[in-house]
């Protein structure tokens, strides 16, 4: 079995920003209230006609490719982690066409805020068994389009973004993906969802109904309890399987959901907050994009050094959560 290495990262965010002050003009809230409860100061959102995750995903992907001077035709597979496609049949194929990756198979993977972690694990399986050599993994969401902007509990949280990672098969000696741990508990799917509701019966004989997807609904208290209890367990399970101690961790990169969650998880693991990678204050919760976006920024800022151990964990709707442990290589 072969190994997996990370060749490059890229990210993209929209130009338009919404500050806490702007939101306080939309719903009954304040800048201080939002910062105190979430850690978020602003979020980027896609505005204008016909703008979608495709625009952000293409830009993030091209930035990753350009860093290593890789031609798009060298990509064998594209996995798009998203819960907000611009086409319910899938958006990965549009990315494939727009970046010119004509030799790549492309498909979507839907797992909300855990999507990028699960996409990385999926890609790693294809690489380790020799099916493909170069894989582009994209995490991209535009949940601002699915927010009820009259709901104070959710409209303050979400922003839009895309992040991309290029993975390549390698020898076991150079393997960077050390291990993973994934979980799902579907009993609590209703804690965080965008439900589909039937509206009008259009064929009484066949009992068929037209319907539409509604806005994001969330039980914030239960999501917090779930994340703070289950994410540390997932991380410890993964670390124990690899015989890696907490003290060996250089960086903790969690899905950027809420600063309270990031702090609570770090505290439970006895990890100093200075080791937590976070850009939540600038972008809010960008769902599947949050981890690759934060990873790309940390690399640009030269925070991550050669041989650093990075623990990455995603969690969210499903309820689904998972952990990857990476050993960084500067090549």
From TrEMBL:
Keywords: Acyltransferase, Cytoplasm, Fatty acid biosynthesis, Fatty acid metabolism, Lipid biosynthesis, Lipid metabolism, Multifunctional enzyme, Plastid, Transferase. Pathway: Lipid metabolism; fatty acid biosynthesis. Residues 107-186 form the Beta-ketoacyl-[acyl-carrier-protein] synthase III N-terminal domain. The keyword Acyltransferase applies. GO terms for biological process: fatty acid biosynthetic process. Its EC number is 2.3.1.180. One of its GO terms (cellular component) is cytoplasm. InterPro entries: ACP_syn_III_C (IPR013747), ACP_syn_III_N (IPR013751), FabH (IPR004655), Thiolase-like (IPR016039). It catalyses: malonyl-[ACP] + acetyl-CoA + H(+) = 3-oxobutanoyl-[ACP] + CO2 + CoA. SUPFAM superfamilies: Thiolase-like. It is found in: Cytoplasm. It is an enzyme of class 2 (transferase). Catalyzes the condensation reaction of fatty acid synthesis by the addition to an acyl acceptor of two carbons from malonyl-ACP. KAS III catalyzes the first condensation reaction which initiates fatty acid synthesis and may therefore play a role in governing the total rate of fatty acid production. Possesses both acetoacetyl-ACP synthase and acetyl transacylase activities. Homodimer. PANTHER family: 3-OXOACYL-[ACYL-CARRIER-PROTEIN] SYNTHASE, BETA-KETOACYL-[ACYL-CARRIER-PROTEIN] SYNTHASE III, CHLOROPLASTIC. Belongs to the thiolase-like superfamily. FabH family. NCBIfam families: fabH (TIGR00747), PRK09352.1 (NF006829). This is Beta-ketoacyl-[acyl-carrier-protein] synthase III. The lineage of its organism: Eukaryota, Rhodophyta, Florideophyceae, Rhodymeniophycidae, Ceramiales.
């Amino acid at each position: 079995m072969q190994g997996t290495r990370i060749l490059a990262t890229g990210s993209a965010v929209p130009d338009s920003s919404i500050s806490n002050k702007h939101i306080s003009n939309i719903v009954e809230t304040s800048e201080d209230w939002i910062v105190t409860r979430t850690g978020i100061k602003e979020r980027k959102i896609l505005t204008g006609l016909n703008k979608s995750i495709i625009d952000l995903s293409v830009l993030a992907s091209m930035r990753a490719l350009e860093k290593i001077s890789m031609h798009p035709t060298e990509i064998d597979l594209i996995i798009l982690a998203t819960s907000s496609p611009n086409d319910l049949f899938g958006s990965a194929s549009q990315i494939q066409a727009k970046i010119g990756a004509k030799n790549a198979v492309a498909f979507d993977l839907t797992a909300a805020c855990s999507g990028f972690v699960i996409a990385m694990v999926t890609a790693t399986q294809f690489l380790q068994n020799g099916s493909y050599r170069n894989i582009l993994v994209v995490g991209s969401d535009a949940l601002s389009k699915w927010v009820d902007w009259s709901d104070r509990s959710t409209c303050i949280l979400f922003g839009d973004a895309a992040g991309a990672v290029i993975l390549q098969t390698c020898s076991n000696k150079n393997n960077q993906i050390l291990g993973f741990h994934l979980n799902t508990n579907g009993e609590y799917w209703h804690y965080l969802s965008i439900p589909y509701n039937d509206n009008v019966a259009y064929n009484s004989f066949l009992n068929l109904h037209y319907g539409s997807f509604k806005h994001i609904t969330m039980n914030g208290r239960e999501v917090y309890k779930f994340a703070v209890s289950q994410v540390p367990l997932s991380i410890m399970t993964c670390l124990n399987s690899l015989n890696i101690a907490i003290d060996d961790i250089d960086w903790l990169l969690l899905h950027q959901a809420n600063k309270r969650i990031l702090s609570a998880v770090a505290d439970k693991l006895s990890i100093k907050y200075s080791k937590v990678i976070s850009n939540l204050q600038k972008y809010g919760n960008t769902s599947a994009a949050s981890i690759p976006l934060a990873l790309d920024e940390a690399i640009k800022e030269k925070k991550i050094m050669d041989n650093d151990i990075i623990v990455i964990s995603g969690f969210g709707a499903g309820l689904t959560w998972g952990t990857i442990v990476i050993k960084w290589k500067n090549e």
